[in-house]
Design goal:
This protein is of the alpha/beta class and 303 residues long. The chain has one domain (3-297): Divalent-metal-dependent TIM barrel enzymes (TIM Barrel). The protein is 41% helix and 16% strand. Helix 2 (18-28) packs parallel to helix 4, helix 6 (112-124) packs across helix 8 and helix 8 runs parallel beside helix 10 (186-193). The protein starts with a strand and ends in a 6-residue tail after the last helix. Bound molecules: zinc ion. Residues 140, 175, 201, 250 line the site of zinc ion.
């Protein structure tokens, strides 16, 4: 199984140019990339043609990196035309680059009854473009335990939505951290998803942490094995369903820390955030080592 990493945590903060970022990841030893097409930092989604997109293609080829999956832009408003256009553009970019799987977020709804019809209507508008390009939508599990507006947190709910389309271009992305925020059994959920699983987001967090008086759930996107997700359960599930995708790390440590602001002499003080690139580089070496170790322990590592 190829080891992959998301590009956005880096292109947003440290290496603005995606092609430079790809060289950086290849140099660390990664074999595949999850291309972030969800932010203003990605030139491929901003251009009208495919000039920069071609450079990404060339760099990936030179670095022997598989472009297997991508992040689409997302909105909580189904009528946001800018996001609809941006999602269409990201499908076209994926089609051009041969990226099989584009991860999308569901629209939150006031009631559970609206969840399926609202999301079926929303995603259906993209079907002609998915068919034309051959790109799959992978619908991701979102929301923590007390979030009543995100209905698609579990394998059962995701399966219900995807089965509604009954279409080869609709699959699921299982996010280990989001699953943990709902305190779900990773093995049970991933095996229920089964052949519908197109790709994964691997990261860690601590849940449940019960602070007296409040229940705390924070989507920290920590390095795997730095939280309390049972990754034996997760990897065994990937093996048992015959998953053929990449092992894709979607970490954001230590940028996403969720701390309260410190106001000193009238000003918010953030001297320690973001971390300097020298520290990030060291942490990237560690992240790669952890990912490789996890795959090696299950004889999944590919040289
Ligand atoms: Zn995710």
């Amino acid at each position: 199984m190829k080891l992959s990493v998301v590009s956005g945590g880096y292109t947003r903060f440290f290496i603005p140019d995606t092609c430079e970022a790809l060289k950086y990841f290849a140099n660390l030893g990664y074999q595949a990339i999850d291309l972030s097409l969800d932010g203003p930092y990605e030139k491929a989604t901003k251009e009208t043609g495919f000039e920069y997109t071609k450079q990404i293609q060339k760099t990936a080829k030179e670095c022997n990196l598989l472009l297997y999956q991508a992040h689409a832009p997302a909105s909580t408003d189904p009528n946001n035309q800018d996001i609809i256009k941006a999602i269409s553009r990201s499908i076209e970019v994926c089609g051009f680059l041969g990226i099989e799987n584009l991860v999308v977020h569901t629209i939150p709804t006031e009631t559970k009854e609206e969840a399926i019809p609202v999301n079926v209507a929303y995603f259906s508008q993209f079907i002609p473009l998915l068919e034309k390009t051959g790109v799959n939508f992978c619908i991701e599990n979102l929301g923590n335990f007390n979030d009543i507006h995100h209905y698609f947190k579990t394998a059962d709910a995701l399966n219900e939505l995807v089965d509604n389309f009954n279409h080869k271009n609709f699959k699921i992305c299982w996010d280990t951290g989001h699953g943990n925020l709902t305190n779900l059994d990773q093995y049970e959920n991933v095996t229920k998803i089964g052949s519908r699983l197109g790709c994964v987001h691997v990261h860690d967090n601590y849940y449940p942490i019960f602070v007296p008086g409040e229940q705390y759930a924070f989507d920290g996107h920590n390095f795997p094995l730095f939280g309390n997700i049972n990754f034996d359960a997760f990897i065994q599930a990937l093996i048992d369903i015959g998953y053929k995708g990449t092992f894709n790390l979607e970490t954001d440590t230590p940028n996403r820390r969720g701390h309260r602001d410190f106001v000193y002499k009238g000003e918010v003080t953030l001297k320690l955030k973001p971390i300097p690139f020298e520290i990030r580089e060291k942490s990237d070496e560690l992240l790669f080592t952890i990912g490789k170790y996890m795959l090696q322990r299950y004889n999944l590592w590919e040289e």
